[in-house]
Here is the input.
Amino acid sequence: MRASMARSSAWLLFAALLLATELCRAAASCSISATGPAFGVYNYSNPSPTLADGTVTASCNWVSGGSTTVNLVTSYSTGLSGSYANRHMVLGGSFLLYNIYFDVNFQQIRGDGTGGSQTGGASLTVSKTAPTAEASSTIYGRMPAGQDVPPGTYTDTIVITMTY
Here is the structure.
């Protein structure tokens, strides 16, 4: 009985190594690019929020091996504000509140999964016969109305991190 168990264990180890070797042979290289929302001229006396769209695009290229599916996860930094609840663009000591969202109803904040935010994701499959795959998503930006600030160019930098 013991000899049988030893052979069984050795066979399972071999199968796991064979599977790990197969997985290492299929490879892909991925990248991400984004265009953030450009809010344009902000008019604080306008009673409606200012809205703008941007785009984030993930691309994967087949490198070697067989067909492979790449599961991507994107996370977004808080920017200069340090908070997902109240991102802000800055000009000197002044700032304009805004946020970026996954949905047109402005409910799902783009972030890292903390502070009420969510991460994004996509699955892309590449192979020798279909060597490239791409997924794009709209970034919905919203800036609340009624922010009385000095005129000028307000900016923020959001870092998008993609893991796969």
In short: The mean pLDDT is 87. The CA atoms of residues 44 and 146 lie 5 Å apart. Strands lie at 27-35, 50-64, 68-76, 87-91, 94-101, 109-110, 117-118, 120-126, 132-143, 160-163. Helices lie at 2-25.
